[in-house]
Design brief:
By secondary structure, the chain is an all-alpha fold. The protein has 15 helices and no strands. Helix 4 packs across helix 12. The two termini are 41 Å apart.
Length: 329
């Protein structure tokens, strides 16, 4: 085709697109990529990264909150305050109520990341240090990848499963060593928290395909509001409350930042860059928690804790490099 004909054809396409209201795709940049998708990728990475930072402060903040509240009161108040914030945002933005077919998935998100994970980890932190809990929960990205593969029907590679089993072995060996040769009640709570949270993340990632990620956590919090009100009314009279600055700050952080803001930016970022890429960012969470525990709580981090954390991260990174966990959203 001659250059004149090519130019004429391009002009005709442009005029036609403008006339019927359709938008032409952006031209690739010099590297052959789509500038719009690259911008979205950077935005999604930043949002998911903010979520990881918020999550990394959850355990130290929970330890602070336990200075003022009992475990059941803290979890109930955390959910109640987060639900109030979420409801206010949903009302202010006039978001439509989700379709009936999505409520079952929202219930899984609510049960996993709003109720199950906070409750089980709070109970665990009564007998476990935050640095110890951080290493155990360092298996969460891997657990989420396994749940996601089962949910979507994908088949991870043999290398993926080898790294997964190795990572699980490191975590179990660490917990047994730290507890004097046997698993303690706190570790059982933490392993249960891994399972319910992974299920909530997986279902949330699926729902993020059909509704904005921040609405996923918003409606999940609204779904738990009656339970949070009842739990608060029942727990506060039976658990002593001794308000301290640490306790109030801890409660506010886990409610506003970990439960609402953290999950808000996490699901929104995950919707933009996908579950697999977002989970890679979460690999830094255990190490960040170890740092916060040292500076905020003055915990003595054992030599085994960072070694185990790094070993787990390497194993999870290996699963991501194989691509076995899938890269879909």
């Amino acid at each position: 085709m001659k250059e004149e004909d090519s130019a004429t054809l391009s002009s005709t396409i442009a005029v036609t697109a403008a006339a019927d209201g359709t938008a032409r795709p952006p031209a690739p940049d010099a590297a052959g990529g789509d500038p719009g998708s690259r911008s979205t990728g950077r935005s999604g990475t930043l949002l998911a990264g903010l979520g990881v930072v918020a999550f990394s402060l959850t355990f130290p903040s929970t330890a602070w909150g336990l200075e003022s509240f009992g475990p059941w009161s803290l979890v109930a108040l955390r959910s109640l305050l987060a639900a109030v914030i979420a409801g206010s945002v949903l009302l202010a933005t006039r978001v439509r109520v989700p379709e009936r077919r999505h409520w079952a998935g929202l219930a899984v998100v609510a049960g996993g990341v709003v109720v199950g994970f906070p409750l089980l980890t709070t109970l665990a932190l009564r007998t476990s240090t935050t640095s110890h809990a951080a290493v155990v929960v360092g298996l969460l990205p891997l657990t989420t990848a396994v749940f996601a593969s089962l949910r979507t029907g994908s088949r991870p590679s043999r290398t993926f499963w080898t790294a997964a089993v190795t990572g699980a072995g490191v975590v179990i060996a660490f917990t047994v060593l730290q507890s004097g040769g046997a698993l303690c009640a706190g570790d059982l709570y933490l392993f249960g928290a891994l399972l319910v949270c992974a299920a909530g993340y997986t279902e949330g990632g699926r729902l993020a395909k059909v509704m904005p990620g921040w609405q996923v956590i918003g409606w999940a919090l609204i779904l738990t509001l009656p339970l949070a009100v009842a739990g608060t009314a029942l727990a506060l009279p039976y658990e002593p409350v001794q308000l301290t600055a640490h306790g109030v700050v801890g409660l506010v952080w886990v409610a506003a930042c970990s439960t609402f803001f953290g999950l808000y930016v996490w699901y929104r970022g995950m919707a933009e860059i996908g579950v697999a890429r977002a989970s890679q960012l979460q690999l830094a969470q255990p190490l960040l928690t170890l740092v916060w525990s040292y500076f905020l709580l003055g915990e003595k981090v054992s030599a085994a804790a960072p070694v185990a954390a790094v070993a787990v991260l390497l194993c999870i990174a290996a699963t991501q490099r194989t691509g076995g966990a899938g890269r879909g959203r």
